[in-house]
Amino acid sequence: MKYDDRPDVFTKGRVQVYTGNGKGKTTAAIGLAVRALGAGIKVFFAQFLKLGDYSEIQILRNLKNVTCRQYGAGGFVGSHPSDEDKASARLGIDDALSAMKSGDYRVVILDEANVAYSLGLISKEELMSLVRERPSSVELVLTGRGAPHELIEAAHLVTEMREIKHYFKSGVKARKGIES
Q: According to the CATH classification, is domain 12-163 in 1.10.10.60?
């Protein structure tokens, strides 16, 4: 039975944006992915700027009905991204658009897409094209600091994570299973 034929699965998707300087944007998106998977909904999870064996990638890759891809060169992206950084991010946009239009995925998550935009890896137009070209049955989630105003205006749900206090400022490093 196709997803569209199931009476218990949503028929109209929305655009969600998780942004802000606080911790929890990726975690919220992964929580939504797990909830969707638990309901039998297929998920496409694209992670921009990152390449490696992060804990969330390890578990997502072991679950059924989720396609998990990373679009990063594996190093820090400074104020002048390399051509390789830009090509990887553009491939992520192309793959996400293909996933949305394929009819195979009802939830498409672009983790750190807003940061990829703010660093100049992808254009505002490329980001907004995902919103415009999203089939109505697809839930599109974009995470990362610095979501552009146009994306915030176009989204159906926007959550801003605001840092009030963070232990990193007292020297605590990223901990495996919590931050990495």
A: no
